[in-house]
């Protein structure tokens, strides 16, 4: 008789040595993760534990990242790094939002709105509803430029701007 090993966390069994997990019903959620790991056990993809992405950083390309990083650092209450990289500057706002600015000598500001009405990436910066006017003044004081007439979508107010390098962004009330 072949020996089986039971994982006490998931209740799954596996034949020794190696072999796929055996289940009566298709799993979902954490059980699905265990099944994916088991199915890929022989490939070496999941030797230890299921891996999750823990954070993401939005990276904006710009010809001169320093002034753009300064603009967003002021707006987000972030500190600029003491040693700024030559090619990439990354900041983290007070509430954990991370954004980076990559030097691209050929960068050109995106157009907004696009004539063919196609979608392009842009930021939505969330602002308390009662602070929208204050934050709008800060945006302009720091070098941002209004792009469109503000509008409402449901309960949210949207105000459109571009940063000093021309990247579009929206102040969105919350």
TrEMBL record:
Residues 54-174 form the VOC domain. Residues 1-17 have a biased composition (Basic residues). Residues 1-33 are annotated as: Disordered. InterPro entries: Glyas_Bleomycin-R_OHBP_Dase, Glyoxalase_6, VOC_core. PANTHER family: CONSERVED PROTEIN, HYPOTHETICAL FUSION PROTEIN. It comes from the Bacteria. It comes from Streptomyces olivaceiscleroticus. This is VOC domain-containing protein. The lineage of its organism: Bacteria, Bacillati, Actinomycetota, Actinomycetes, Kitasatosporales.
